[in-house]
Predict the 3D structure of the following.
Amino acid sequence: MTCLAPAPHLPGVNAASAVLRVAGVAKTFTLHLRDGLQLPVVADADLWVAAGECVALGGPSGAGKSSLLKMVYGNYRVDRGQILLQAGAQVVDIARATPRQILALRRARIGYVSQFLRVIPRISALDVVAEPLRDEGVPAEAASQRARALLARLNLPERLWSLPPATFSGGEQQRVNIARGFIASRDLLLLDEPTASLDASNAAAVIDLIRAKKAEGTAVLGIFHDAAVRDQVADRIVDVTRFGASA
Amino acid sequence: MSAMPAITYNFAYLDEQTKRMIRRAILKAIAIPGYQVPFASREMPMPYGWGTGGVQLTAAILGVDDVLKVIDQGSDDTTNAVAIRGFFEATAGIATTTRTAQASVIQTRHRIPEAPLKEGQVLVYQVPIPEPLRFLEPRETETRKLHALADYGLMHVKLYEDISRHGHIATTYAYPVAVAGRYVMDPSPIPKFDNPKMDDCPALQLFGAGREQRIYAIPPHTRVVSLDFDDHPFEVQRFDRPCALCGAENVYLDEVILDDAGGRMFVCSDTDNCETRRDQGHVGALGTPLPEGMKP
Amino acid sequence: MSPRAPLPLDLDTPLLVAHRLTKHYGARIGCEDVDLEVFPGEVLAVVGESGSGKSTLLALLASELQPSAGRVCYRQDGRLQDLADLGEAERRRLLRTQWGFVRQNPEQGLRMAVSAGGNVGERLMAVGERNYGTIRREALTWLERVEIAADRIDDDPRAFSGGMRQRLQIARNLVTHPRLVFMDEPTGGLDVSVQARLLDLIRSLVSDLGAAVILVTHDLAVARLLSHRIMVMRRGRVIETGLTDQVLDDPQQPYTQLLVASVLAA
C-alpha cells in the first residue's frame, strides 16, 4: 500500500483557504433489518481540497472511499463532524445543511460523477448532459452546443446523441455521465471511478478534462482505481484507512 | 238540479295558508332575482309536467279582479291551456282572455307573447327543470354551492361544447341567462328567440317548478343577459320568411304540415298575435282576408 | 404560445406550512402531529404503505378535510394565511386558479361527459375567459404538451385510454399555471410503460412551470424520479424526512430501511 504524504505543491494554499474541509467526520451504518448490526465506515475523517488541486482518496475497497464522497455530496448522512464547503463568501456545513441548501449547492457548487448513470426515461443523451447547464439558466441552444462538444470529445457516436441512454452499453453510459458531470463549472467536483469502464483512449480524454477543470480552479476529490490515471491527475493521495473506525 | 251538494273550493283552489307560504316564497324570489327559492309544492289535480308549478303561482297571486290568459307553446287553444284556464274559471270564477293586452296574469308554457308586456302584468312560467347547471353537475348540493359562490365557469363549458360540436351555440331553448349580474337562471324551455324579451321587461316574471319545488323571479326592469362568448355572441333565431297567415316578420314561427305531399307553411306560434294582426287587415302569402262582416 | 410569466415568488419562504396537523376518525388515527413546509418549485413526496395516513394528509393539506387539530397555512399576497380562515368562495378560487389536484382515478378528476377541450378549458372559463378562440387555442396547446393528438380535442375522455385520461387530467390542472399541485398516486393503476411516459411528462411540466408539488405515492421509484424531498409516513406519523436520495440511499429508521429493501432498484 503506497501512501503519499500531503505535499505543498500549490504555493500559498493550505487547509484554511481550502474549498472543502472535512473535519472529524464519523459515520456508521446501522442495519436494522439485521438486528441492528453496526457497520462503521469512518471514525475520524479529516481532509481538505484547495481550488485547482486534485486529491485522490486511497485505500482498499471497503475502506469507505465512496461513502466519504457521498457524504460530501450530501447523499449519505454524517453522524459527527463537519464538511465545510466554501460557497462564495459563505461557508456551508454539508453535514448540517437542510435538504434545500444541499440541492442549491448541487445546482451551483458541487458536481458529482458517479460510477453509474441513473437514466431517466425518454430523455436524450444530449439533454441529460445539457441539464446541469440548463439548471444554471444557460439558454437551451448554448447548453446543447456545449453538450455536443463534450460528447464528441468523449467519442460518443453522434447517432446516439438523440437517444435515451437506457439502451447504451456501460462504457457509453459512463461517457454520458462524465459529460454531464463536467459540463458545468463547479467549485468542487467529486469523481467516483470515472474511468472504470473506459478504454485507454477515452480514459485519456477524461484525464484531459480533469486537468482542464483543475486549470479553471476547480477543486477535485476523486477515487481512481487505475493507478496510471491517478498518477496523471492527483496532486495528493489521502489514505482513507487512517480514518478507519478501528484507528 | 242535482241531488249532490255543489262542491265548493277555496278561491283559486289552494287554501289561504298555502297561498301565503307561496307568496312568501315569491317575495323572496323577487328580492333575490334569479335565485331558486324552495317551496312546499302541493299536490294539484293534474299530473306533474302539466304546469303544477305555474298553477300554484297563479293560484297564489290571483285576485277577483284579475284577467287570466293561459298559453301553451304560444297557443291559447291547446288542451293544456284550455284545461288550466277552465280550472281557474271553475275555482276562482275570474275572467279569462286570449288577448295579451287585456290580461293581468299570463301563465305560459314555453313562450313569451310577441306583444310587449306592460307594467302591472305578471307572466307566470311553467318550469320543468329549474337548475341550469344540472346537465353538467347532477349533484344538487354542488350546484347550490356553485350558485352561492357565483362559480359559473361550468355554464360556459356547456356553451363551449355546443360550439366545438356544432360550430355555433346550438342551444336553442332553455338558453341560460344571468339575472341582475348575479344568478344564472334557466328561463324554462322558451326558445332563445324570446330571451331578449326578458331583459328590462316592465312586467313581473315568475317561474314555478312544481315537481322540483322551486320558485324564482325576475322583477320588472331587471337586466337579463344571455350567456355567450366574445367571439360567438348570443343571437336569436332568424326566420327567412314572414308568417304565412298574417305576414308578421320578426316573430317566432311554427312549422305546420299541410298535406302528405310535403306541403307546409310557417305561421305565428303566438296565436293571439296572429289573430290580432289579421283582424287589423294584415294578410300573409297563404292567408285569406277575413270576410267583410267579420272585420272589427 | 409562450407560457405566462410566473408569479414573482420569494423562493426562500414556504408556500404551504402545516403545523401539528392531526386527523382522527373516531378512535382511529388518520394522521397525527404532522409538520411540513413546501417551498415554491419544490416537489415533496409523501410515501408509505396504504393506511399510513398519506392520503388523509393530502386531503387535509388541500383543505378537503377538516383537521381534528393543527393547521395549514398558505402564502398568498406575501403573507401566510390559515386555510381555516378562508371562506368557501376563496378556497374554491384557490382550487381552480393557484392549486391543482391530480387524482389517482382520472374519472374523479375529469368531467367524463365533456370533451377533452372542454375539460382543459373549464378552469379558464371559471376564471372569466370568454373568448372561445382563446380557450380553444389554449386547450390545443395543452393537449400537445401532454402528448394528446390535436384531433382528439372534441372526443370525450370515455374514449381515451387510462394513460391518456391521466394526461388529460394533468393538462386540465396545469392550464391555469398553478403554484401548488397535489397529486395522489398519479401513476397508480397504469401499465409500467405508460407510467414511465407519464412520469417524464409530470417531471418536465412541473419543472417548466416551477410549480410546487405534494406527491403522495407508495412507489419509491416514482418518489426518486420526481421529488426533491421525501417524507416517510407510518401509522399516521412522519417517521423520517429529508433529501430524497439521502433518505432512499441512507435510510435511518428501521421501517424506512424495510421499505427501501422491499423494492428493486428504487
Summary: The interface with chain C takes residues 136, 145, 148-149, 151-154, 156-157, 160-161, 163-165, 228-232 of chain B (CB under 8 Å). DSSP finds seven helices and twelve strands in chain B. The two ends of chain B are 40 Å apart (CA to CA). Chain B has a mean pLDDT of 93.
